Amino acid sequence: MATILIVDDDDGVRQFLTEFLVSLGHVVCTTPSALVALDLVRDGQKFDLLLTDLQMPDLDGAGLIAALRHIGCQQPMCVLTGWVKTTAVPGADGVLHKPFHLDELQSLVERYA
Predict the structure, then answer these.
(1) Are strands 3-7 and 27-31 parallel, antiparallel or unpaired?
(2) Fewest Cβ atoms nearer than 10 Å: which of 34, 35, 46, 60?
(3) In this structure, what is the dihedral angle of CA atoms 37, 63, 66, 93, given to the nearest 10 degrees?
């Protein structure tokens, strides 16, 4: 069981990911904003794995990962993106392309959490 922080500005995506990951026995914390996620972590929110969307309006996933790495977070961080051309994101441990199959998500979580 891992604590997974999900950051995605799409309510449906957050709900879908949460329901699936909870069904696998994980604890999930979600936020629609990278800036809010950064504040949560600064305020003591613990996580074992970060799953973040790449494209978000306030701060993108790459910026969130860079900011978290800058403040010393060493936990695995993965990007979920619909941008097919994105194969690597600086500081990210993995990239999963939307749409993905649930077994791909489960495999990613098992690899990093």
Answers:
(1) parallel
(2) 46
(3) 90
Number of folded domains that form the chain? 1
Vertex 63 angle, CA 85 and 38, to 5°: 135
Domain at 24, CATH number: 3.40.50.2300
**Percentage of residues in the chain having pLDDT higher than 70:** 98
What is the separation of C-alpha 61 from the centre of its chain, rounded to a whole number of angstroms? 8
pLDDT computed for residue 113 by the predictor: 86
Buried b (16+ CB within 10 A) or exposed e, 37-74: bbebbeeeeebbbbbbbbebeebbbbbbbbbbeeeebe
Angstrom distance (rounded) from CA 83 to CA 69:
23
Q: State the DSSP H helix or E strand holding residue 78, giving kind and residue range, or none if neither.
A: strand 77-81
Reported as a single tens digit per residue, the pLDDT across 44-97 is 999 999 999 999 998 999 999 999 999 999 999 999 998 767 777 899 999 999
Domain around 14: 3-112
